[in-house]
Amino acid sequence: MTGVAEAVRAYLPGLALLAGGAVAATLVADAVPGLQPLVVAVGIGVGLGNTVGIPEIAEPGVSADKLFLETGIVLLGAAVAVEEFLAAGPTVLGLVVAVVAGGLLFAEVVARGLFRIGSPTSSLLAAGASICGVSAVVAIGRVLDARGTAITFAAATILLFDAATLVAFPLAGEWLGLTGRQFGVWAGVSMFSTGPVAAAGFAYSPEAGQWATVTKLARNSLLGGVAVAYSLAYAARSAADPGVRRLWAEFPKFLLGFLAVAAVANSGLLSPAALASIGRVSDALFALAFVGLGLSIRVDDMRAVGAAPVGAVLVHLLAVSAVALAAVRWLL
Amino acid sequence: MVSDAADGTDARPDTTDGTDARPDASDAAGSSLVDRWTALDRGWQALALGLGIVAAHLVGQAL
Predict the structure, then answer these.
(1) What global pTM score does this model have?
(2) Is the minimum CB–CB distance between B9 and chain A shorter than 8 Å?
(3) Dihedral of CA A38/A41/A45/A51: which sign?
(4) Of A96, A159, A91, A171, which is closest to residue A130 (Cα–Cα)?
């Protein structure tokens, strides 16, 4: 099995870097009361990425951070109390659909009408801000055959807001006195990329982290539908790329794993010790993923983002998060 | 979701074309496994890893 050994060897330096950052984050958080290890993990990643950078040899391993995040989310299924989520499910789902649909239209109007940003950049920004951040920018960019520069430009704008909201949302939640559930749902419908949403949620409280992740997963699952809608609106693709296939192609498959693990955990098949152990594995994967998330945040890249897209996304974020805040306070 | 599998970060020799290098059977099986894994969408990889970890816990508590 030298093929497997060779493949794994290429990933080892990057995995060691992520693991080192995760261990350091845990030690720092243990030493300083009130610090959340996952937030420290992001901070260490940002610090390393913007000073020393990522050594070339470590890049393959570091690029596995999103796999760790998604696997951590699958395992998070073991920690959710299904009855509680089913009880709030229709309300949260209704809120997610309303915020995504309204947010997309609002972002398009603001970007095109107020900031004179042409298509498809306006649509890339709208998708990134309304659904699931950079993944949505890339997916919708593919559907619309957008140029690489437009995708890079929109992705950099979204990343700028990912970094800012990761810090701002937990502070705002504390200031507003939101419960864990209210904060989680608020962050889950308002913030952009999945990693920062989960990080902000867990920075607030474990309960907020679960609600933020579940709410964000519901939002991510709408990506396929939005991709089909954009495809039809722009008529960018022929009938050879049917809607159902597109829906399935963009559907986040790890969501099925999350649901399967939640079903197994809530069926009573797993002992309390096994559930606790799965929770520790999930926490460890999140720590690795959040060091990687920090490493991907580059201050220099964000300086290159123009004023118009920042203005458009800022107006969208302020409006959507204000509406979502009012909704979660009223409904939850 | 976007898969990282197609970004070419881990270029390895393709052993699926039946070349005459005649690697031993376990090497060929290993390469085939790696190729199949890297060709998977990242969402499927996460699903497989997550379910594998839960399955290991189920087996562990049954022993």
Answers:
(1) 0.75
(2) yes
(3) positive
(4) A96
